[in-house]
Design brief:
Chain B: InterPro entries: SoxD, SoxD_sf. The complex is a heterodimer of chains A (1017) and B (129). With 1017 residues, chain A is an alpha+beta fold. With 129 residues, chain B is of the alpha+beta class. Classes of the chains: A alpha+beta (1017), B alpha+beta (129). The interface between A and B is large, with 37 and 39 residues.
């Protein structure tokens, strides 16, 4: 294919570098410097997509991020698929493969088009709400087809081969947009010495200067842009970020920038010869000051069939001609309400193509550009507008008519002009998006016929974004605002920059014009599109207002105006103007919707950055982790910790070797502990070192029980409540010395408990001299437990293990396997147990020494599952499993651990006498023994007293822990049950979701060794 | 995302280092046993939820681990000042407009001022080590 619309000269492209690409399966060529859109236009591709709802053919309408139609799916391979890319923002590269997002199976012949043709008039706003309402269960089915038809891009089904990252950036002044205002502002700020970041979403910095007809200091405007960019890139205090979109403006001047680093070169970084580099980067910028120089978007006019390919925004025509050397047609009609748009006609004519007419809605336009057009022999039709485009696959003509904008009627006879391109301009809408991301409403300005940003603290506005449009004024404004921002950022001497010379143009004022009246009433006229991306028509907006949707926010949601990836860039103001006309109000009375981040779509890769795969969430390993891995442990996540869950062994059965099931492994581990000796890696237990003369007093205030008399060398179990009297955490605390304690917490509660202690110390009792430090990772903990524990320990330690010398709930310092250790005689299994604490870097040595000596005792490593079974057999709770923030120590039957007569009103004490916490029928911890010993009750199963009761049954409690006990040869459970302690021996029922009902007897929570003799040998 | 001046570190840090810890200036009754159930319930469960100026306690969890207070506008998310535990806010709902006019906002591009006269110097002193 030849590039039929390409000019022989001009434009900022490199004609010596030919690039080939594929669009919708067809091969084309373009040049380096093209966007996908300019290359498609150069090749005369009219239809790039089918529309969202009506499936109408659509062509390229704009040249920037506001493009509503040319939304493509990018990527040659499955893994490199990128959805919802605007062809106007995608740089062309060799081998690029793209498809129109919409219009499956192809855009020329669309199987959905019957819906558009037949169903068009049957698809009013709210169609989906009205049609697919019932039955609700069918929604998932509807949704599948709606999505497929709706033309949203699709995510790749293979893993992304690229990497992405985040930068945290700080600067004094962040300038968003590198057009005339942004460049001048950046220069001002940079020369004052401030740290400046200048970002711009385009391939090349310069913005409107790159397609301007005007001169700066007697040279083309683009030359000035090049010169400023060159100066800025030479300054150490300036960071230039081209191809970088400021997508979100957040609180306290936090701005997220999305930088595309290899997307303009190839599908993947590797494909671009930049293996290992990031494809896109998210800059998280904390800016002292933000200068928003985002310019404006030209508004198209709303007329009938304004979506047929060949209808463009006037400014885009100039961009394609002047930047890319592409004229997107042969014969142009321009419809406008302002002077500036005339440059499209002048550019068109200078490119050697025919301008059929300029149709101006104003009665007597006489600005400089109008005069230039007339002098160039262009026909100017005044007081009129293009009412309707003709043609279906491409514009074939423009119906022009005189109009009365006040009364919204046509006043003359319709003249049809033959043409293939209609450019329209309804004025300019400042790009206020970022300024409203934190909730600030834009303000309407009658003189500008547009919304300008509301006041945002820390943000300054330069150029078109606050309605300064003329080039000379924009440059001055940019320089002033840059200086103002840099002063506000604390820089005294902002050297004034010499504002360059620009000829002043005389302009005749713009008239207010949004929708063009049609000879037929709006609901009968051919479709007049307001929002091309979401297929919202003027009639739909009018219908919405008639159906009672008067708030613009409701109109938006009912019609989908400004939804999705579009965020109202082209259509919003026109939509509001139409709603205002229908409601007989002014535009500011109707108001505007709120724009939200992101300004343009951001790939998930950039959002996630490096926080994926193994870096998604940190994993914490104990010092013994490698041993567990080597010994075949299955792991369980406990918080961020990886803990051994159980250690399946090989077993031979029926002549075959296989691994134990979890059930088999746990049974074997349990019996080993009850009959011989087992060992657990308990290093993950939270450990807090507490020191200070008031440490003892402090413990007495945060624990429910007494600590005044705990002697050095002794250990005590404590309960910690919140001030509402509910159990929060539990654990043992050992007295290391008079003013020195070691507190243990649950694995998951460690950080929370430390913060809890700090909270009370810092906010309530700062007079107490006490200090806390986390030592969880410093100490490795190994629990040696079982009847043979003493025998094994005696082989590896110099500590006297005599039961009279080293009693239950004592701790001793000594050597274990030759290294310094603290050994605690505490038990979480009900068996004789020694908890060995050694410095973490000695852990592996000690662990291996224990196994070397333990072989003859068949020392068995066990995991968390066995730990749970063993502790539950003893009725020992786990805070967070058997409690849920609504359980008091009394509910747990642990009044023995509550010191009501302590002098200080400890945390939680007062609440325990509130009427609700003192109720008799609170849920209390009990044991449950299933009538059928083979049954292991489901954790979370609800308990009822009468299984025959009609649903909803009266729920009396639920199962909190449930296991199979190899010692009892039966399932057993812990549960909370209303008034449970008075129900011992009663039968309760547990209805299951499959309709079966289990029976269980209410028993004591202690299933094994109720007197506690086994741990006390 | 907030930019928070930690009154202990004397630096602006990112919100990710902090987390909120509820309403500031709650007073735990000195003698819990002597208050009624209703008063205790109010202390435990009832919190302000104003639109506008609000005082919150935050903790510099991934920094100095200190608790401190923030005066924040819940409608604009603006942090008007941060101050140490035991200090009183210089900006309140009653005087916010006046304080804003007096230029409490810093000119250095920052968002907060460190306010406040210590209400109780005891809370502010480091305990001797």
């Amino acid at each position: 294919m030849t590039q039929s619309n390409r000019l022989n000269q001009g434009g900022r492209i490199d004609r010596s570098r030919r690039l080939s690409f594929t669009f919708n399966g067809q091969q084309y060529t373009g040049f380096a410097g093209d966007t996908l859109a300019s290359a498609l236009l150069a090749n005369g591709v009219d239809i790039v997509n089918r529309s969202f709802k009506y499936s109408r053919p659509r062509g390229i309408a704009a040249a920037g991020p506001e493009e509503p139609n040319a939304i493509v799916q990018l990527g040659a391979s499955e893994a490199a698929q990128v959805p919802n890319v605007r062809a106007t923002q995608q740089a062309l590269y060799d081998g690029l493969v793209a498809r129109g997002t919409n219009g499956w199976p192809n855009v020329q012949r669309d199987v959905m088009s019957w819906v558009g043709k037949l169903g068009g008039s049957f698809m009013p706003p709210g169609f989906y709400y009205k049609t697919f309402m019932a039955p609700a269960s069918m929604w998932m089915t509807y949704e599948k087809f709606i999505r497929k038809g709706a033309g949203l891009g699709r995510a790749p089904t293979e893993a992304d081969p690229d990497i992405y990252d985040h930068f945290n950036q700080h600067c004094d002044v962040l300038v968003i947009g590198a057009g005339p205002a942004g460049l001048a502002a950046a220069l001002s700020a940079a020369r004052a010495g401030a740290r400046v970041i200048l970002c711009d979403e385009q391939e090349e910095m310069g913005g409107s200067l790159l397609d301007s007809r005007e001169s700066i200091d007697g040279a083309p405007a683009s030359a000035w842009a090049e010169q400023v960019v060159a100066e800025l890139s030479g300054l150490a205090n300036v960071t230039l970020l081209p191809r970088t979109t400021a997508n979100g403006y957040h609180d306290h001047n936090f701005v997220t920038l999305h930088e595309r680093r290899t997307e303009h070169l190839a599908d993947t970084a590797a494909g671009a010869g930049r293996e290992g580099e990031v494809r896109a980067r998210l800059h998280r910028v904390r800016a002292g000051r933000v200068v928003l120089a985002s310019g404006s978007h030209e508004r198209p006019l709303v007329y009938a069939n304004n979506d047929v390919p060949g209808n463009l925004v006037a400014g885009a025509v100039s961009v394609y001609i002047r930047r890319f050397g592409v004229v997107p047609g042969q014969r142009l009609v321009l419809s406008t309400n302002n002077d500036h748009a005339y440059r499209a006609a002048l550019d068109w004519q200078e490119a050697g193509r025919e301008v059929v007419a300029v149709v101006d809605s104003r009665a007597k336009p006489d600005g400089d550009l109008v005069k230039q057009a007339r002098d160039a022999g262009i026909r100017v039709i005044t007081g009129s507008a293009v009412m309707e485009a003709t043609g279906s696959q491409r514009v074939s003509g423009a119906k022009v008519v005189a109009i009365d904008t006040e009364r919204f009627v046509v006043t003359g006879k319709v003249e049809t002009l033959e043409c293939d391109t209609i450019a329209s301009s309804g004025g300019y809408s400042p790009v206020v998006h970022l300024a409203s991301h934190t909730g600030k409403r834009p303000q309407w300005r009658d003189d500008l016929l547009g919304f300008v940003p509301g006041e945002v603290k820390g943000m300054h506005f330069a150029g078109g974004v606050h309605g300064v449009y003329a080039l000379g004024e924009t440059l001055t404004d940019g320089a002033d605002v840059g200086a103002e921002a840099v002063r506000a950022a604390g820089f005294e001497e902002a050297a004034a920059i010499a504002v360059p010379e620009v000829a002043v143009r005389q302009e005749s004022p713009t008239s207010a014009l949004y929708q063009i009246p049609h000879e037929k009433p709006p609901l009968r006229a051919p479709k007049q599109f307001v929002d091309l991306q979401n297929d919202v028509t003027a009639a739909a907006v009018e219908l919405a207002t008639r159906e009672g949707f008067e708030s613009i926010e409701h109109v938006k949601r009912y019609t989908a105006l400004g939804f999705g990836t579009d965020q109202g860039k082209l259509g919003n103001i026109n939509g509001m103007a139409i709603a205002a006309r229908c409601l007989n109000r002014s535009i500011p009375e109707v108001g505007t919707t709120v724009f939200r981040p992101n300004y343009t779509p951001v790939s998930f890769g950039a959002i996630v950055g490096r926080h994926c795969r193994e870096l998604f969430d940190p994993e914490r390993y104990t010092a013994l982790h490698q041993w567990h891995v080597e010994n075949g442990a299955e792991f369980e996540d406990v918080g961020q910790w990886k803990r051994p869950w159980y250690f399946p062994q090989k077993r031979r059965a029926d002549g075959q070797e296989r691994l134990e099931t979890m059930h088999e492994a746990v049974a074997r581990e349990c019996l080993a502990v009850r009959r011989g000796v087992g060992i657990l890696d308990a290093s993950t237990l939270g450990k807090i070192d507490i020191q200070g003369p008031d440490a003892r007093e402090f413990l007495g205030r945060v624990y429910t029980n007494k600590w005044a008399k705990l002697a050095p060398g002794r250990v005590r179990y404590g309960l910690m409540c919140k001030d509402d009297g509910m159990l929060m955490d539990d654990g043992t605390t050992s007295c290391l010395a008079e003013n020195h304690f070691l507190m243990t917490t649950t694995t998951g509660g460690a950080a929370g408990v430390l913060e809890w202690l700090e909270l009370w110390h810092q906010t309530e009792w700062p007079e107490l001299q006490v200090y806390f430090n986390s030592v969880t990772d410093h100490w490795a903990t190994m629990t040696v437990t079982g009847p043979d524990a003493r025998k094994l320990m005696s082989e590896v330690t110099d500590i006297d293990l005599d039961r009279e010398q080293f009693k239950f709930m004592d701790w001793k310092e000594g050597k274990v396997a030759g290294v310094p250790a603290r050994v605690f005689r505490i038990s979480f299994t009900g068996e004789l147990a020694f908890e060995i604490n050694v410095q973490a870097n000695y852990a592996m040595h000690v662990w291996k020494a224990l196994f070397a000596h333990g072989e003859k005792y068949d020392l068995t490593p066990y995991g968390t599952e066995t730990m749970h079974v063993l502790r539950a057999e003893k009725g020992l709770i786990i805070a967070g499993q058997d409690t849920d923030g609504s359980v008091t120590p009394e509910d747990l039957g642990m009044h023995w651990a509550v010191g009501y007569d302590k002098p200080f009103s400890w945390i939680g004490q007062r609440a325990l006498t509130r009427p609700d916490t003192a109720r008799e029928d609170r849920k209390q911890l009990v044991g449950l023994k299933p009538k059928d010993p083979k049954v292991v009750l489901e954790e979370g199963a609800q308990i009822v007293l009468d299984p025959e009761q009609k649903i909803p049954m009266t729920m009396m409690g639920h199962v909190t822990s449930s296991y199979y006990s190899p010692v009892l040869e039966s399932g057993f459970a812990l549960a909370v049950l209303k008034g449970g302690r008075n129900r011992m021996g009663e039968t309760v029922y547990l209805p299951m979701s499959d309709g079966s009902v289990h029976q269980a007897e209410v028993v004591s929570t202690v299933f094994i060794d109720p007197k506690g003799e086994r741990q006390n040998v | 995302m907030f930019h928070i001046f930690c009154p202990y570190c004397q630096e602006y840090r990112e919100e990710e280092e902090f987390h909120p810890s509820g309403q500031a200036h709650l007073v735990r009754p000195a003698d819990p046993a002597s208050v009624s159930d209703e008063e205790w319930g109010d202390y435990l469960f009832f919190r302000d939820n104003p639109r506008g100026i609000h005082h919150e306690m935050w903790v510099h969890r991934l920094g100095c681990r200190k608790f401190f207070n923030i005066t924040r506008d819940t409608a604009t998310y603006e942090i008007l000042e941060t101050y140490r535990m035991g200090e009183q806010p210089s900006i309140t709902a009653a005087n916010a407009e006046v304080r804003r006019e007096q230029g409490v906002q810093t000119a250095d591009g920052g968002w907060q001022t460190v306010g406040a006269q210590p209400e109780n110097s005891r809370l502010n002193e480091e305990t001797p080590s």
